[in-house]
Design brief:
The protein is α/β, with parallel strands linked by helices. The protein has two domains: about 190 residues, 3-Layer(aba) Sandwich (D-Maltodextrin-Binding Protein, domain 2), CATH 3.40.190.10; about 190 residues, D-Maltodextrin-Binding Protein, domain 2 (3-Layer(aba) Sandwich), CATH 3.40.190. It is built from 18 helices and 14 strands. A five-stranded mixed beta sheet has the order 2-1-3-13-6, sandwiched between helices. A four-stranded mixed beta sheet has the order 9-10-8-11. Helix 10 packs across helix 17, helix 11 packs across helix 18 and helix 17 packs antiparallel against helix 18. The radius of gyration is 24 Å and the shape is globular. It starts with a helix and ends in a 5-residue tail after the last helix. The structure holds beta-D-galactopyranose. Beta-D-galactopyranose binds next to loops. The site of beta-D-galactopyranose (GAL) has 12 residues, from loops.
């Protein structure tokens, strides 16, 4: 009898082992609210992730809560109200770097995701530098979905040929060809609403002061009212003369359209513009549109990374964790990024799925000097960013480089930049 009982136990144990892992996983149900600014033209890449999530979790109702507006200008304001009102979404878009760490982690609003990184084998899947950017000595606070490049100049090769100009390698070159283009009724550089001026500024500042000074600025080792920074504002002022006057009323897509339609020659925008031209406009990289590092920044890669976190008090925590698992996976990443115009944040992405622009971006990322974007959350917290938009408004009106440089230093003190 004893023997029989033993045998039964062995058989039962063997049967348990034979049960496929998946049937042991909890079947998820209920809602999942994902909060981001990827609406409209920015939506297809996010939809590819949602599709994968729904295939794995058919009983979860996904609420795709988007607040439209490039670089999250509107979404971030709504998110702030919700977070402060203790009504967090289940997961929200946030840039890796200070936007996450200096804002939401500092306010103790995020859950530590170290357990997920360990479970999923992500400690080695993402570059060490990126994990540092989303982490502190107390934990890892979000899951990165991509790497975008900020300092890119876009153009249409056929138009440049027609106008007899080449993509400028330096801002001096740009300032030489710009008056000629303007005389012919072509806007030399397309610009859109306020945040795109911040975006242009960071490329100009990087070009003007160089990557060491750029890094020193955010480490609190170079003052914002130093001659290097004043010089960057002065150059920025010269460049602004060659932008369109209706910029404040345009979205970044409309500024990109100006280049596509031949109303403007160039545009400095992050490579979500490549996503827009390929995914929405069905244009071919290299032939229908061209690109170059923004003037005087060849060999430098100003990067940013979108990520999603798990706020404390997320109403559907398990569903959110399952969402984050998709975001960090190789399959999720390689479905999302080719549509988004970004490269994978993972080290093992399948580059054959990526177009010519993205392959060139991946190559540059592996060899260039990498610095962090201000306009997209890497370099500074939300306190600085909010104030910087006002400083930018002041500059757009006054063009007073010394005054804005001083205002920036006051802001940096308030936001404790480099502390
Ligand atoms: C950035 C974001 C990109 C893209 C862009 C335009 O801040 O990181 O993914 O959405 O804004 O909205």
């Amino acid at each position: 009898m004893k023997k029989m009982a033993k045998l039964c136990l062995v058989v039962a144990a063997a049967l348990m082992l034979a049960v496929p892992q998946v049937s042991m996983a909890k079947e998820l149900s209920g809602d999942l609210e994902i909060f981001s600014w990827w609406a409209g033209d920015e939506g297809p890449a996010l939809q590819a992730l949602i599709k994968q999530y729904k295939a794995k979790n058919p009983n979860v109702k996904v609420i795709d809560a988007t607040v439209t507006g490039g670089s999250g200008v509107n979404a971030k304001a709504v998110l702030k109200t919700r977070m402060l009102g203790n009504e967090p979404p289940d997961s929200f878009q946030v840039h890796a770097g200070q936007e996450l760490i200096g804002t939401w982690v500092k306010a103790d609003r995020m859950e530590d995701l170290t357990f997920l990184f360990k479970d999923q084998g992500w400690m080695d899947a993402f570059p060490e530098g990126l994990v540092k950017l989303i982490g502190t000595d107390k934990g890892i606070w979000s899951v990165p979905v991509n790497i975008h490049r900020s300092n890119v100049m876009w153009y249409i090769p056929a138009n440049l040929k027609k106008w007899g100009v080449e993509a400028p390698k330096t801002w001096d070159d740009f300032l030489k060809i710009a008056p000629k283009l303007q005389k012919e009724g072509i806007v030399p550089l397309a610009l859109a609403q306020n945040w795109t001026a911040n975006h242009l500024w960071e490329s100009v500042a990087l070009a003007s002061m160089g990557p060491d000074n750029w890094d020193a600025l955010w480490a609190g080792k170079l003052r914002f009212d130093s001659p290097e920074v004043v010089k960057a504002w002065e150059l920025f002022g010269k460049i602004l003369q060659y932008t369109n006057t209706d910029a404040p009323s345009l979205s970044w897509q409309q500024a990109t359209d100006m280049v596509i339609d031949g109303r403007a020659a160039f545009n400095i925008m992050g490579d979500w513009a490549a996503g827009y031209m390929v995914t929405t406009k069905k244009m071919a990289p290299g032939t229908d549109f061209g690109w170059a590092a923004s003037p005087d920044s060849d060999g430098e890669f100003m990067f940013l990374a979108d990520s999603f976190g798990l706020p404390k008090g997320a109403p559907n925590r398990d569903n959110a964790i399952a969402w984050l698992e998709i975001l960090g996976s190789k399959e999720g990443s390689d479905a999302f990024n080719p549509l988004k115009g970004s490269i994978s944040a993972r080290k093992d992405s399948d580059l054959s799925k990526y177009n010519a622009y993205l392959q060139s971006a991946a190559k540059d990322f592996s060899k260039d000097r990498v610095v962090g974007s201000l306009a997209h959350g890497v370099a500074a917290n939300e306190t600085f960013m909010g104030g910087f938009s006002q400083v930018m408004e002041m500059f757009l009106k006054t063009k007073n480089a010394n005054a804005v440089a001083k205002a920036c230093q006051q802001l940096a003190d308030k936001a404790q930049i480099g502390k």
